[in-house]
Amino acid sequence: MIKELLDTRIRPTVMEDGGDIAFVSFDPDTGVLQLSLIGACATCPSSVVTLKHGVENMMKFYIPEITEVEQILTAEQDLSNKEFEKISKTLDKDE
Predict the structure, then answer these.
(1) Where are the alpha helices (DSSP H) in 1-95?
(2) What is the distance between the alpha carbons of residues 41 and 75, in angstroms, rounded to a whole number?
(3) pTM over 0.85
(4) What pLDDT, in 10s, does the model give residues 32-73?
(5) SS3 label, residue 28
(6) Buried b / exposed e along 22-50 (16+ C-beta atoms within 10 A)
(7) Mind telling me which Pfam families this protein's record contains (predicted)?
(8) What is the topology classification, in CATH, of domain 2-94?
């Protein structure tokens, strides 16, 4: 049901903005659904709002067992964020 909802209701909207969304995991004991935002959506400043208010609300509405939706970064996204933080700290020191 989760993957079907992602494919039919959520993914088409996310793809219109040049991104994609992928299922990572679901823990039925905690109700936590983990998803990964890909492409333009991964780096979009509104991705947190999209994930928490749009995706999470819809998933909870259709699948009450879901208690929370978390974004999981891909290895590339995590590395990119770490490098950005290093550069940002270097620039802050130069000011």
Answers:
(1) 2-5, 11-16, 40-43, 47-49, 56-62, 75-94
(2) 16
(3) no
(4) 999 988 876 666 667 777 788 889 999 999 999 999 999 887
(5) coil
(6) eeeebeeeeeebebbbbeebbebeebeeb
(7) NifU
(8) GMP Synthetase; Chain A, domain 3 (3.30.300)
